[in-house]
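Duplicate of #3305? Posting structure anyway:
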């Protein structure tokens, strides 16, 4: 009896942010549907796909190095993703690339794979089963839910609109159907992502669509309410502090979505925000944050900031530190400004010297570390629900509602009982440091 031909094999390297990770998942799902096998090494791959990041210079360099490694180890490489929008840059460094495409170019990637590594087998729906949620690169207990592509902002330090285009929201019923499939597959936490989550549905004029016998408008408030029906954690990322976010806070207080907001404030100086083309004022933000906390005292806010932006003076930086002290944000990340090819900020005068950027970065992180440590100390003695991410010899690594995966802190749980990844546990916090909590398993479990 003759053996069937083996399927074509594809190696895959995924770089960049969670939005790029979702792109990778979609490409991999389509490749599996086309009959390809996904392999974990260069040696057994007929072709290697590298999904790149091109947001800042360091990310571009990382992407070019990853492409170079794939060429050296395999030789047959297809490039896609954000850096793919700069084909000349890629081919200048690596002229032997088989094909190049930009972000969200799912069909182009699959076509390139089919052209350069034809598979003798095709997907058989009666034999080659794919889960309804498709292929996921995240652990089984959490998943990213992308609700839109692109962005309508024109921030001077960013080139995302030129790479990913203007805002294009997914219809709300399509998003909810995907969320329902993920929940049915065992996902315990959905991380809602986009370039601008607050603007969800603007381009569709908030059109209505049906899901599970109810009509919902394509907007953030209706989406959050409907996702709350799934009975799992729902975490909102990349939320701008628009007035419509006020409608989300009561849903957090009710427990429909996690009381957690990821808001990229970027700076606090009005002059620098104007140069960044950011639609925000620190005074208005502080008032809004206080109003939110009055409604939902458990609200955790994480944010990111840029120091050393062109023209940033010591006075501007001091305003940023004063904002940190006033806002008392729970989780904060900081980046030193780095020029991005094609960004308008490159033409701004009065660049900040690198040594001064580093000095301000260190002062910023020192200020925030003290704030974070004080806020976490207040958690000692409290009871929290945590989601188990990892099991190790050192114990259980978990996250609370205030901790997004890979960017926030952890809760280290000591217990002699058997637990599994993806379990929800009730713990009592026993200690804290600058960024993490330490806890023991509570006597009563859910």
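Output from current build:
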């Amino acid at each position: 009896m003759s053996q069937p031909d083996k399927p074509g094999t594809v190696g895959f390297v995924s770089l960049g942010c969670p939005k790029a990770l979702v792109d990778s998942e979609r490409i991999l799902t389509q490749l599996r549907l086309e009959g390809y096998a996904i392999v974990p090494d260069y040696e057994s791959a007929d072709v290697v796909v590298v999904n790149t990041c091109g947001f800042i210079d360091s990310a571009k360099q990382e992407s070019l190095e990853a492409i170079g490694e794939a060429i050296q180890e395999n030789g047959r490489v297809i490039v896609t993703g954000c850096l793919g929008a700069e084909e000349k840059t890629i081919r200048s460094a690596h002229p032997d690339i088989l094909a190049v495409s930009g972000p969200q170019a799912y069909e182009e990637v699959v076509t390139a794979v089919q052209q350069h590594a034809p598979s003798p087998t095709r997907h058989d729906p009666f034999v080659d089963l794919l889960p309804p949620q498709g292929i996921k690169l995240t652990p089984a207990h959490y998943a990213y839910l992308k609700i839109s592509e692109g962005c309508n902002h024109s921030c001077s330090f960013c080139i995302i609109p030129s790479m990913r285009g203007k805002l294009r929201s997914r219809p709300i019923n399509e998003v909810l159907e995907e969320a329902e499939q993920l929940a049915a597959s065992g996902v315990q936490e959905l991380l809602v992502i986009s370039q601008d989550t607050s603007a969800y549905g603007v381009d569709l004029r908030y059109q209505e669509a049906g899901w599970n016998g109810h009509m919902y408008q394509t907007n953030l408030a209706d989406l959050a309410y409907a996702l709350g029906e799934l009975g799992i954690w729902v975490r909102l990322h990349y939320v701008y502090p628009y007035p419509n976010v006020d409608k989300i806070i009561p849903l957090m207080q009710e427990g429909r979505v996690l009381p957690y907001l990821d808001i990229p404030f970027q700076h606090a100086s009005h002059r620098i925000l104007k140069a960044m083309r950011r639609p925000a004022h620190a005074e208005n933000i502080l008032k809004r944050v206080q109003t939110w906390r009055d409604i939902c005292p458990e609200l955790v806010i994480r944010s990111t900031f840029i120091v050393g932006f062109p023209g940033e003076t010591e006075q501007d930086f001091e305003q940023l530190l004063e904002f940190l002290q006033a806002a008392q944000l729970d989780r904060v990340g900081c980046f030193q400004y780095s020029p991005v090819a094609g960004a308008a900020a490159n033409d701004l005068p009065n660049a900040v010297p690198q040594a001064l950027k580093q000095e301000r970065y260190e002062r910023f992180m020192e200020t925030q570390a003290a704030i974070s440590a004080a806020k976490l100390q207040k958690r000692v003695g409290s009871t929290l629900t945590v989601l188990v991410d990892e099991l190790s010899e050192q114990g259980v690594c978990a996250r609370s509602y205030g901790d997004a995966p890979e960017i926030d802190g952890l809760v280290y749980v000591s217990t002699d009982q058997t637990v599994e990844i993806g379990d929800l546990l009730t713990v009592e916090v026993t200690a804290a440091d600058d960024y993490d909590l330490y806890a023991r398993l509570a006597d009563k479990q859910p």
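Confirmed duplicate; merging threads. The radius of gyration is 23 Å. Residues 198 and 242 are 7 Å apart (CA to CA).
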